[in-house]
Design goal:
This protein is an alpha+beta fold. It has 2 domains: 102 residues, no CATH class; 161 residues, Trna Endonuclease, Chain: A, domain 1. The two termini are 30 Å apart. The model has no long low-confidence stretch (mean pLDDT 91).
Length: 328
């Protein structure tokens, strides 16, 4: 098993070494900021500079050709645009350094970023979420990163809710048994809520898991009244966050909530908080009714260091921290 693990680590390093991040949409600055942080993680002995990132994205800078004034002018304008773009990436990284403070695993000075010499538990937690948001590079660890991200979200929601709350995993690590319909009925029984029989019967018997619900929590009263506050959570890694909003809503069709619709929760590994506006970046893409747990909020509310140390995530993070090779 250790040999297979090491082979997968080596494979992801090699893929990252030759990975072309320019395939990311230019408006998704968070992808580029994550990529630069990955560069700093994998080249821990030296700073990753503005020039390093520019050259990785656009190639080594050359002086515009003088023999053709128009060509030189166009090339110069393109180079100016490239430098502005890299500057915007570093501006976002600077915002993160200020937002996360001690929880940020990198030292940042003007347009330079470097992994800290001594990383804390919260630093490693940040790195784990950074890696989980980069499944296009770490595809060999997709199962481990995705499954254990659900565990992080479970504990974050549990810490966020009051002490008397009940929180359950409904994804890969659920304790409910049977096929999808059976699991939904067991959840409804615990919630003391009726099911919507017609909709529930439309789920095929062979389905062992109904997509869309990974973590569920509720705040109980001492009475059996069906009116209660319920949280339905969907956990998503990778870059397909927008497609996940609809999935968790479908559970409103399976369980009959009384007088109060559940709070829909989306857990994502990305860093989304726009500190200048106290909103999320690309706020218009965030659907209404959703409570968002992004990177900052998950780090704030995940406090189970012992749990983290027991996860494969911890081994993956440690392997990246120990890896020191110039791949910029």
């Amino acid at each position: 098993m250790k040999k297979i693990f090491n082979q997968k680590i080596e494979a992801t390093f090699r893929k990252f070494q030759y990975y072309d991040p320019t395939k990311y949409p230019k408006h998704e600055k968070k992808y580029y900021a994550d990529f630069v942080e990955l560069l700093a993680l994998c080249d821990a002995e030296s700073d990753v500079t503005f020039a390093d990132v520019h050259d990785r994205l656009f190639g080594v800078r050359e002086s515009p050709k003088e023999e053709d004034g128009q060509t030189g002018s166009l090339e110069g304008q393109m180079e100016d645009n490239n430098e502005v773009f890299v500057g915007e990436i570093f501006k976002l990284i600077e915002e993160r350094a200020n937002l996360y403070q001690d929880d940020y695993p990198f030292n940042y000075t003007h347009r330079k970023i470097k992994l800290k010499d001594n990383v804390t538990f919260k630093n490693k937690l940040y790195i784990s979420l950074l890696l989980s948001s980069s499944l296009d590079i770490l595809g060999d660890f997709q199962k481990e990163l995705s499954d254990e991200f659900e565990t992080l979200c479970f504990h974050a929601l549990k810490d966020f809710l009051p002490d008397q709350s009940q929180v359950r995993e409904f994804g890969q690590h659920t304790t409910y048994k049977g096929n999808a319909k059976s699991k939904i009925r067991q959840l409804a029984d615990e919630l003391k809520l009726p099911t919507e029989s017609d909709e529930l019967e439309e789920i095929p018997e062979r389905n062992t898991k109904e997509r869309g619900l990974d973590v569920v929590g509720w705040i109980p009263f001492d009475d059996d009244c069906q009116n209660k506050l319920v949280f339905l959570g969907q956990c998503t890694c990778g870059k397909d966050t927008n497609s996940k909003y609809h999935d968790v809503k479908r559970f409103e069709n399976y369980i009959r909530f009384y007088r109060l619709q559940p709070i829909l929760v989306l857990f994502t590994c990305y860093s989304l908080i726009n500190t200048s506006k106290n909103k999320f970046y690309k706020s218009a893409d965030v659907e209404k009714r959703f409570l968002i747990f992004e990177r900052k909020r998950i780090i704030q509310h995940f406090k189970e260091e012992t749990v983290f140390n027991s996860l494969e995530l911890n081994n993956i993070v440690n392997s990246y921290i120990k890896f020191q090779e110039g791949i910029v």
